[in-house]
C-alpha cells in the first residue's frame, strides 16, 4: 500500500471510529434512507470518497480503483451502510461513454447525487435512494433516464437493495467489464468485514472464561483462529492484486477468495461466541448476515466458478 493510500485508509478509519460505532450503524439501518447522511457528507467532503475514480477534469480526485477499494474495505470493516459502492460503479459506467456527462459526474463526485449500477434489476445496490441509474446488460451500458424502485426485503440489514424498473432509457456505449470491477470492489469490502469479524472473535475469547481460564488460551482455539488469520491474509493479497489489475480472472479469483474468507470467519465467529452471537444486541449476527448476503450479491459463488473455469480454459 502506498503512503498516500495508507493516509486515506487512516482518515476513513478515523471517521468510522468517531461516527460509525455499533449504535450509529443500527441507527442508520433504521433511518429513512438506510445510511447516515451526515457521515456520507463527511466522507465526501473530507475524504472525497465519491470522487476517487472520477478524473480531475470532470470534478473528481483522479484516483485509482485501489483507492476506492481502500475506502470500501474500511467501511466494510464496521458494516457502515453507505451509497459508495453503487455510486462508484455508476461513475465508472458514465465514464465509459464516448462523451461522459460532466454535470452528472460532478454531482456524483460531490455526493449530492447517488448512483446505482444495475446487473440484476431485482437486486440493485442503492436502488431505493439512487437518482442516477445505469444498467449493464449484454455488453452494453444504458442509462435509465426514468425509473421506478421499490425496496426488497433482505437478510442483511446493513445493505439495502431495491427492485428497479426502467421507464425511459438512453444508450451509453460498450460495457468495459464493470462486472469484474464490481466484483473487486465488493471483495475489498468483504475483506474489511472479515478482518473485523476475526477481531471481535479474538477479543471475546480473551474475555470469556471457562474452567477458570480464558477460552482463547486453549490450544485448539488458538489453532482455529490462526487458521482464520491466514485465510484472511491470503484472500487480502489476492484482492490487492486484483485492485491493481482487475482482469476477469483476477476479479473472479478475488471474489471467490474474499467470499470464502468472510463466510468462514463469520461462521467460526458465531460458533466461538456461543449463544450471545445470535442475540439482537450483539454485532456478530450482523457480520454473519453480511457474509451470506454478499455471497449472493452480483453473482453466486457457483456462477463465479463457472465463469472462472471458462476464462482459464480460454487462456490455454
UniProtKB/TrEMBL annotation:
InterPro entries: AcylCo_DH-like_C (IPR036250), AcylCo_DH/oxidase_C (IPR009075), AcylCoA_DH/ox_N (IPR013786), AcylCoA_DH/ox_N_sf (IPR037069), AcylCoA_DH/oxidase_NM_dom_sf (IPR009100)
Pfam families, per the entry: Acyl-CoA_dh_1 (PF00441), Acyl-CoA_dh_N (PF02771)
MF terms in GO: acyl-CoA dehydrogenase activity; flavin adenine dinucleotide binding
Gene3D superfamilies: Acyl-CoA dehydrogenase/oxidase, N-terminal domain (1.10.540.10), Butyryl-CoA Dehydrogenase, subunit A, domain 3 (1.20.140.10)
Domain spans labelled Acyl-CoA dehydrogenase/oxidase N-terminal: 2-111
Domain of life: Bacteria
Keyword Transcription part of the UniProt annotation: no
Residue ranges constituting the Acyl-CoA dehydrogenase/oxidase C-terminal domain according to the UniProt record: 184-292
Alphabetically ordered keywords of this record: FAD, Flavoprotein, Oxidoreductase
Cofactor(s) the record lists: FAD
Family: Belongs to the acyl-CoA dehydrogenase family.
Protein name per Swiss-Prot or TrEMBL: Acyl-CoA dehydrogenase
Organism: Mycobacterium asiaticum
Amino acid at each position: 500500500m502506498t503512503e498516500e493510500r495508507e493516509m486515506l485508509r487512516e482518515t476513513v478509519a478515523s471517521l468510522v471510529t468517531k461516527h460509525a460505532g455499533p449504535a450509529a450503524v443500527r441507527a442508520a439501518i433504521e433511518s429513512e434512507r438506510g445510511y447516515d447522511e451526515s457521515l456520507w457528507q463527511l466522507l465526501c467532503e473530507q475524504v472525497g470518497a465519491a470522487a476517487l475514480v472520477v478524473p480531475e477534469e470532470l470534478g473528481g480526485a483522479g484516483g485509482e480503483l485501489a483507492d476506492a477499494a481502500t475506502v470500501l474495505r474500511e467501511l466494510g470493516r464496521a458494516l457502515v451502510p453507505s451509497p459508495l459502492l453503487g455510486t462508484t460503479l455508476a461513475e465508472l459506467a458514465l465514464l465509459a461513454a464516448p462523451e461522459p456527462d460532466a454535470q452528472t459526474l460532478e454531482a456524483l463526485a460531490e455526493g449530492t447525487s447517488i448512483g446505482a449500477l444495475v446487473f440484476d434489476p431485482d437486486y440493485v445496490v442503492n436502488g431505493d435512494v439512487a437518482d442516477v441509474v445505469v444498467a449493464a446488460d449484454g455488453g452494453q451500458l444504458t442509462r435509465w433516464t426514468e425509473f421506478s424502485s421499490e425496496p426488497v426485503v433482505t437478510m442483511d440489514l446493513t445493505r439495502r437493495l431495491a427492485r428497479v424498473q426502467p421507464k425511459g432509457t438512453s444508450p451509453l456505449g460498450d460495457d468495459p467489464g464493470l462486472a469484474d470491477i464490481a466484483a473487486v470492489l465488493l471483495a475489498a469490502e468483504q475483506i474489511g468485514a472479515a478482518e473485523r469479524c476475526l477481531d471481535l472473535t479474538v477479543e471475546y475469547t480473551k474475555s470469556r472464561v471457562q474452567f477458570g481460564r480464558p477460552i482463547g488460551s486453549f490450544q485448539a482455539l488458538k489453532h482455529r483462529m490462526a487458521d482464520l488469520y491466514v485465510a484472511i491474509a491470503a484472500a487480502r493479497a489476492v484482492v490487492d492484486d486484483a485492485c491493481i489489475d482487475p482482469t476477469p480472472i483476477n476479479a473472479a479469483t478475488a471474489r471467490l477468495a474474499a467470499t470464502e474468507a468472510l463466510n468462514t470467519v463469520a461462521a467460526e465467529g458465531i460458533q466461538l461466541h456461543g449463544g450471545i452471537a445470535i442475540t439482537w444486541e450483539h454485532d456478530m449476527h450482523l457480520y454473519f448476515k453480511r457474509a451470506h448476503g454478499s455471497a449472493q450479491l452480483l453473482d453466486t459463488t457457483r456462477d463465479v466458478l463457472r465463469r472462472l473455469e471458462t476464462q482459464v480454459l480460454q487462456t490455454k
